[in-house]
Amino acid sequence: MMRRALVALFLLAGLCLANLRLYLKDGTWHVVREYQVQSDRVRYFSTERGDWEEIPLELVDLKKTAATIKQHEEKERADAKKADVEERAERAIRAEVEQIPVELGVYMVEGKTVKAIKKAETKIKDNKRRNILKVLSPIPMISGKATIEIDGEQSANVVNQDQPEFYIRLAAAERFAIAKLSTLKGNRVVDRVEIVPVTKEYVDNIEVLDVFRHQVDDGLYKIWPVKPLTPGEYAVVEYTDGTANVQAWDFAYKPGAATPK
Length: 261
Hints:
- The structure is a single chain.
- By secondary structure, this protein is α+β, with helices and mostly antiparallel strands.
- The chain is about 20% helix and about 40% strand.
- It contains 2 helices and 19 strands.
- The strands form 4 sheets. Strands 7, 8, 9, 13, 14 and 15 form a 6-stranded antiparallel β-sheet that branches.
- The termini are far apart.
């Protein structure tokens, strides 16, 4: 009875696969499309010769053949599961991209939705003057030190999660990060700029945080802090080293703040 059960199992397994190996006890094998155990013989369809053939059962290593079939089936199931996972991941990425507007800028994640953050008006200030910065335009010539600031001590954009997530859509390859802002005379400082006396080169001093960056699409990135934030003022910044031209999208982290609706 047991032998008949094994025969039935091998038959079913053989019928489910194509181009499997029917192992012999001498270590060789036949490549077959299917096989059947019939009494003291094994009947198989040879893929090499395209016809049915028979071989004595005592020459066939049924255990190794069955084990190989099982491994093949497990691999097929694993591959199918992997393909399914990859397909779901691709669908999730497509859905993620579709929810981000095509306009350049920064978007803050609020639950299952995203909210556009208005770019802050950054200004450069030295001892004599204060000037509004324009995107990708050189800053006015300054001497010694200066600060790039945002008016006011607090941002209107508030998050209550200590590891908030943002999307940033760029027009070109620029550096970007999350920066910790300090306060100075009622304003928030994004960058403390130094001027090298002889070369007149700008040295940026932005307090950037360690962040995770994930490229979602061409020019579109997801960004969030590696470590939990401490309460305070922050900004997602886009900048080029040595230009003292920083674009900022400001926000504040306030634990316990009301969840945006």
